[in-house]
Amino acid sequence: xxxxxxxxxxxxxxxxxxxxxxxxxxxxxxxxxxxxxxxxxxxxxxxxxxxxxxxxxxxxxxxxxxxxxxxxxxxxxxxxxxxxxxxxxxxxxxxxxxxxxxxxxxxxxxxxxxxxxxxxxxxxxxxxxxxxxxxxxxxxxxxxxxxxxxxxxxxxxxxxxxxxxxxxxxxxxxxxxxxxxxxxxxxxxxxxxxxxxxxxxxxxxxxxxxxxxxxxxxxxxxxxxxxxxxxxxxxxxxxxxxxxxxx
Amino acid sequence: xxxxxxxxxxxxxxxxxxxxxxxxxxxxxxxxxxxxxxxxxxxxxxxxxxxxxxxxxxxxxxxxxxxxxxxxxxxxxxxxxxxxxxxxxxxxxxxxxxxxxxxxxxxxxxxxxxxxxxxxxxxxxxxxxxxxxxxxxxxxxxxxxxxxxxxxxxxxxxxxxxxxxxxxxxxxxxxxxxxxxxxxxxxxxxxxxxxxxxxxxxxxxxxxxxxxxxxxxxxxxxxxxxxxxxxxxxxxxxxxxxxxxxxxxxxxxxxxxxxxxxxxxxxxxxxxxxxxxxxxxxxxxxxxxxxxxxxxxxxxxxxxxxxxxxxxxxxxxxxxxxxxxxxxxxxxxxxxxxxxxxxxxxxxxxxxx
Lengths: 247, 353
Prior knowledge:
The complex is a heterodimer.
Chain A (H helix, E strand, L loop, with lengths): L4 E12 L2 E12 L3 E5 L6 H8 L7 E6 L2 E2 L13 E3 L12 H9 L9 H15 L14 H13 L5 E5 L7 H16 L3 E5 L3 H7 L2 E6 L2 E6 L1 H5 L2 H14 L1
Parallel strand pairs in A: 3-8, 3-9, 6-7, 7-8
Antiparallel strand pairs in A: 1-2, 1-4, 4-5, 9-10
Helix pairs in contact in A: 2-3, 2-4, 3-4
Chain B lengths: L1 H30 L3 H26 L7 H19 L3 H19 L9 H19 L10 E2 L16 H22 L2 H11 L1 H6 L4 H27 L1 E2 L6 H14 L6 H20 L6 H16 L3 H8 L1 H10 L5 H17 L1
Antiparallel strand pairs in B: 1-2
């Protein structure tokens, strides 16, 4: 384990007019690792995510990146700090081709391309890496869910991030597609990108993550390796317990 | 090399096609001597240019502005007032007009950018109307009777001609220049930022685009073009009044882009070239038969296009067999892969040089 965490969240709280969506959540993300965040629907995962990514200002709490306080940074400043994200509900640039989608990303971020050629070269590199190269001339609205999810990742990667936040990147995929997505996420991680992901699919979380954070009713109820978390009696009760009853 | 040769042939054919089109436009005033027809072409040129100014906001950025006539009016008023009161040269004032419209668009209009979607459109209408009311009620701006430019002998320096032909060429150059600028923007960082904002503002923020900053850039570019067209219009008509800024005028500038295809840089040109002569033709031939019938027929054409071809004439063309035929048989356009390889290859050789 490296000594310093790349992302550190302390006492993060979000209240929407009296409704507490996230309450006093603290955790750290190790540099170079894959950290997962799980929890039942409505547990506050996406709210936490959106706060870390600058989309919602937190009511209380602080977010540190490499020791620097980034709590009040705006969403569009993140790629300049080498942080990129994907969206749970895919947001492809519908009327642009896949290639143009990625070129747009190449123009921004901390190492923005200076001209069209540079942007295009990098875009093609990213498309080959994510396996979308063959489909680069297709309009992104005409692609299916698996490819749009890949495109989300390709767009994020084109900004050359150091940290990548993946919001339910495998929801809605069948087992084969999930396996492919897992392989891609591992490949991204091996290229030196730290990953924090929200996921519903346990298979993915168990096979990818070195550390898992469990949220329930907006509070962190467990943290540890996937095995530790899955054997935690309280986690089993609130989240995984139901499954065992059905069996 | 094969790729180089194929792309070279395509570029040559494209150049010939563009040259032929340009030659037709240059030849028109030499063949057609009727001032009425020339006037229609001048209308086509300046309305298409205004439509391109709208398109960078409405088509590229997805911010529907319905107040563009106000910027054109501001430009025209700046020119008329400064030329008559301070006796400056009109060409110099045209630059001033662009700066004034850019300033008004960037600074006064700035707070409106927190508004999105239909609210932005409503504010743009209100903004245009309040500018018009302000001018109607201000002695300095000549109230409702407007301002005129001085008449006199033909002079290029004063941009003043009795014949319509010089305005025809000036309008043509203006339209081509604005088109070239828009085409350039479309392919660079600003263009990609604007298109990303149009598709999704959250996604734009996620890749590091500050939506407000780029929306301001789009509005300022749009306003500057409109300000320059205001200069052209004032010099051509030589008299302006606040009716220049009415709502109907703003709408007139939206139509060519929508009919031609708002997603394309060429959309306003195609739409303008079809809709404006059509409107004039209907007015000339049918307005006497049954007053108002020309407007009804115009409206029907518009409804049909929007109902059946929402992506505009170019949107239809891009997917048609006709385009395929032209690309393959006449222009000999190589496949996208080849074009892409050519672009990357070019970059490699430039790097070495």
